[in-house]
Write a structure and sequence with these properties.
By secondary structure, the protein is mainly alpha-helical. It has helices at 13-17, 20-32, 38-44, 50-53, 56-65, 80-89, 95-102, 108-123, 127-142, 148-162, 195-198, 212-217, 239-246, 261-273, and strands at 167-169, 176-178, 182-186, 204-208, 221-223, 229-231. Strands 1-2 form a two-stranded antiparallel ribbon. Bound molecules: zinc ion.
Length: 274
């Protein structure tokens, strides 16, 4: 079977609004289902009213990736692994599409955990012990048990970042705090990360729960292109909050580097748009 030519459009508006899981489901459905429409995907995958969305949301995602109507149902009746092999051997670059399809394999989250764990072991000979320590902290501090996979993922990332130390320095405020007041925070929101980004331990940074984690995640502060902390002017601040944030402004984010700058820029750009 001949693979059609990718024909990506430049408009990324719909694509940017969607998280990795949604994009993965849309792409999988488009390539593997025979008779599904954009409107049905808007309804069934995105939970939108197809009468008002008109299918434009999933269509926008697919067009951005270059998967126009020629791709509809090309793998209908085919097996996932064979289809992936076929894309891999095509002369066009399907690596990101393959990543999206692999995400729909049932053991994809176990594979992610395994791969991150390997990274941890590669970097630290006592990783197993450090992972157990950091995992037990999450159980203690949350008070309740999270879903086991995401708890493991956070435990591994904490193990990689904090190893066996008792205190660490927050990448944003530079205060040294006990590890149970610290988190391994995603620089680029986890839901927007592809599988390979989730497997990359550089996607997280050590930040404190005593302010910085929320200030960054909720977009009150941003890290500029030189790695310096700035107030996000588009947010509303009380006078008191402004006083707190002004102490951070101008500091360097200690986790800003060549390996992390793309993740920071994703976050920065996502704050500008809304
Ligand atoms: Zn902090």
């Amino acid at each position: 079977m001949l693979i059609p030519k990718l024909d990506p459009s430049r408009r990324d508006r719909e694509y940017k609004q969607r998280n990795f899981e949604e994009i993965s489901q849309i792409v999988h459905t488009w390539l593997f289902a025979n008779d599904v429409t954009h409107r049905e995907m808007d309804r069934d995958i995105l939970g939108l009213d197809p009468l008002s969305s008109k299918g434009w949301q999933s269509m926008g995602v697919l067009h951005y990736l270059g998967l126009k109507k020629e791709f509809k149902g090309i793998f209908h009746n085919a097996e996932l692994h064979q289809s992936i092999d076929q894309l891999r051997s095509d002369e066009q670059d399907f690596s990101f599409i393959i990543e999206l399809l692999e995400n729909s394999v049932s053991d994809s989250s176990e594979r992610l955990i395994k791969s991150l764990y390997e990274v941890g072991k590669f970097r630290d000979k006592d990783f197993e012990e450090h992972f157990k320590l950091r995992l037990s902290e999450i159980e203690n501090t949350d008070g309740r048990r999270n879903q086991s996979q995401s708890r493991k993922e956070q435990g591994i990332l904490r193990g990689i970042l904090f190893k066996g130390v008792q205190e660490a320095k927050c990448a944003i405020c530079h205060r040294t705090l006990p590890i149970d007041l610290m988190v391994a925070a995603h620089i680029k929101p986890r839901s927007k990360c592809s599988t390979s980004e989730r497997k990359n331990p550089n996607v997280v940074m050590p930040v404190c729960k005593v302010g910085c984690d929320d200030f960054y995640e909720k977009g009150y502060i941003l890290i500029d292109q030189s790695g310096v902390i700035q107030i996000n002017e588009e947010m509303y601040y009380s006078d008191e909050l402004e006083t707190v944030l002004s102490e951070l402004t101008g500091k360097r984010c200690t986790h800003f580097s060549q390996e992390t700058e793309d993740f920071f820029s994703y976050k920065r750009n996502s704050l500008k748009q809304d």
